[in-house]
Amino acid sequence: MDRVMSRDSRRQQAQQLRKNKRADTMNKKRQLGTSEYAPFLVCLLPLEASIDPRSTLDMLEKCDPEALVYKNLSGITYLSVPRFKQRFSFIVPPVGRGNEFTALDYLKVADTTIFIVSANNPEGEIMDRWGSRIFQMAMAQGLPTPTFALQDLESIAPKKRIPMKSSIQKIVEKLIPDQKLVTLDTNSDALNLLRKIGAQKKNKLKNRMCRPHLYADKVEYSQEVLKVTGYLRGTPLDVNRLVYIPGLGDFQMAQIDVTTDPYPIDKRNMDQEIATKVFAVADEKLQTPSGPGKCLE
User: A biological process (GO) annotation for this entry (predicted)?
Assistant: First the structure.
């Protein structure tokens, strides 16, 4: 009898552990993109050089009249959507021949990639030579959570829309199995796309899971000290470790500051004062050595 009870107890304990783990995972998922976390970082990447990603971004900005739109000098567009209680940040890499590695750098830090394709192609192709090349390179590097957005479907004859969408859907499924195509021609479509970005399961990339990373909102250089401001993602950042800046190399940090979130979800917090306080200061005895004259704050 004791053995049976012990077995039942172990089974109940295992069930409770699974339940708690599932609840913890769901709770973390619901908090992503909220005011307590960094906004979803979304990379808009057209698969044809003729597609203008700025038109896609413009549609996303205007799809919800209650959404708050912020733009900064680094080219990041922040979109706070009160109805979803989530925030999104959009980046647009340069496209075309010669910009492949720059686009890959954008994808390294993005949470989601929106591949923009057009239905206005008489040959039924969804990518040109550059699009095919950057897609293959992104797959080899490690692709952030992908979504395919189809534009210009309403520009073709109504009777051809369903066959065209089905044809493009088959191409997408060959590239990434089980990937659903999202139309993007109306405000309702744009809202559905935002909802999907906020709810879909995120890909876990090993090269990011074990490292902190940041896409700079603001960069200042004064008295041989480089100040970089942005949302920190990934693992915690150690002030005594080196940081790598693409194209520049490794740098020591002087300190880490924490500031008031400048892109709130609630309109009532738009006029709040931006305060900054020191979070951590480097210890020379614990710092990882770097080249001479390199310092980052």
Answer: endonucleolytic cleavage of tricistronic rRNA transcript (SSU-rRNA, 5.8S rRNA, LSU-rRNA)
Query: Counting every residue, how long is the chain?
Result: 297
Name the residue with tokens 């708050």. Answer: 68
The burial class, CB within 10 Å (0-12 / 13-18 / 19+), for 295 is middle
pTM above 0.70, yes or no: yes
How far is Cα 74 from Cα 131, in angstroms, rounded to an integer? 24
Structural domains of the chain, with CATH = 40-206 (3.40.50.300), 209-287 (no CATH)
- Taking only the tens place, the pLDDT of each residue in 158-182 is 898 898 899 999 999 999 998 889 9
The closest alpha carbon to 67, from 89, 46, 82, belongs to: 82
Tell me the Ramachandran region of residue 16: left when phi exceeds 0, alpha when psi lies from -120 to 50, beta otherwise: alpha
- Spatial distance between the Cα atoms of 295 and 14, rounded to a whole number of angstroms: 50
Assign 189 a pLDDT band (cuts: 50, 70, 90). Answer: very high
Residues 6 or more apart whose CB falls under 8 angstroms from that of 148 comprise 114, 115, 117, 172, 176, 179, 180, 181, 182
Print the SS3 string covering 133-175: HHHHHHHHHCCCEEEEEEECHHHCCHHHHHHHHHHHHHHHHHH
Tokens of 178: 């089980």
d(CA 133, CA 97): 10
Residue 88 φ then ψ, to 5°? -130, 145
Question: CA-to-CA distance for 282 and 297, rounded, in angstroms?
Answer: 10
β 249-253/295-296 pair status = parallel
What CA–CA distance (Å, rounded) separates 99 from 199? 31
Contact 58, 93 (CB under 8 A): no
14-29 pLDDT, tens per residue?
A: 777 777 776 655 555 5
Angle between helices 53-62 and 187-199 (to 10 degrees): 90
